[in-house]
Fold this protein.
Amino acid sequence: MIIEYNPKYDNQIKYLLEELQQYLTDIDKEGYNIVGEDYKEKYFEKP
């Protein structure tokens, strides 16, 4: 099921994205991908 984006889901989205990024870094044998401590907090910041 696909649901429309709603800001109330921000924390769940951030958690899911952090988990995905962590998985990608775990399988990255060359070490190109890293996840910083503030990844989850900074994800939705506007540049």
Observations:
- The CA atoms of residues 10 and 44 lie 9 Å apart.
- Helices lie at 10-27, 39-42.
- The chain has a mean pLDDT of 84.
